[in-house]
Amino acid sequence: MRLQSDTAFLGALTNVPSGSYTVQVTLSSPEITFLNDTGAPITGKRRAMSGHICLHCDSHGVGTPRSALVTFNATASGQQGIEIDFNLKMPSRSRAELCPSISIPPLPTRGVFTAFTLPARMPNLGTNQLELIEDFTGVVSISGSTVTITSPTRGVLSATVTSSSFFDQSPVPTNLCPSAPNNCAAAGQNASVDAFLKSDGTLELKEFEPLNSTQQDFVEGTVFSIDSNSSTQFSIAVTDKVQLATNSLIGDSTLAISSP
Predict the structure, then answer these.
(1) Closest C-alpha to 207, from 181, 239, 180
(2) What is the distance between the alpha carbons of residues 102 and 63, in angstroms, rounded to a whole number?
């Protein structure tokens, strides 16, 4: 669900020979969690009852590339950014494309993946900025003017601090930390960052938001149910988490990403 609204950085390729290329997507162990609000059961390898949160998995087609999404030309000394759009709002066909075990009659609509070349058409992008990576959450480490965020679910993001980087601190936000980010950020704390993807494949820190002063168990997700009989109980579909290095209460066996 995070990729419905946020952007994930897949990486940069260097020294690509000149030529024509196509972008394809390969899925490994696809899994989908959704609320069946169709008013009727959905059948398949598992039965998804109406009004219930349903988890479907299928290993069909693992390692088989989907059809080509976009074709582009690589030129000598050129730089090219490619973005893959992930949209589960392409409802019936998209869910069947991700998990063939879900038997929903297909609609005449495009698939869940499309692709296009960068830069993205965004008003807040500057010169040599291709895209904005938002809300990357994890544990902080600092080396010189580089802030690195390590997420157990999304990998590692390293961004360079500049005079335009914004540190969301309390009580007064500041951007006066380009040469010494450790004055505004602390190694080992939980934080969320936004970063610009630049045309050379590097990342520039846009905003740093501390979440906890130290590394703690931390869960993000989408609320899908509130217990009407309790003032403290609600349910979320988990989209991200940070765990304590030891003695975590949210281990993989107890709370998986996208599980209710």
Answers:
(1) 181
(2) 19
DSSP 114-166: EEEESSP--TT--TTEEEEEEEEEEEEEEETTEEEEEETTTEEEEEE--TT-E
pLDDT in tens, the chain (260 residues): 667 677 888 888 888 899 998 887 776 666 666 677 778 877 665 667 777 777 665 444 445 555 567 788 888 888 888 888 877 665 444 444 444 444 433 333 456 677 888 887 777 788 889 999 988 989 999 998 899 999 877 889 999 998 888 888 765 555 556 555 767 788 888 899 999 999 888 999 999 998 887 778 888 887 877 888 888 888 887 778 888 877 888 766 667 665 54
- Residue among 184, 86, 233 nearest 94 (CA): 86
- DSSP 3-state percent helix, strand, coil across the chain (nearest 5): 5, 40, 55
| Residue 177 DSSP symbol | -
Element counts in the chain: helices (H) and strands (E): 2, 14
Q: DSSP string spanning 184-234?
A: T--TT-EEEEEEEEETTS-EEEEEEEEEESS---EEEEEEEEE-TT-SS-E
The 10 Å Cβ neighbour count of residue 133 is: 18
Strands 234-242 and 203-212, sheet pairing: unpaired
Facing residues of 34 across strands?
54
Q: Give, in order, the Cα–Cα distances in Å from 259 to each of 16, 33, 55, 89.
A: 39, 7, 8, 19
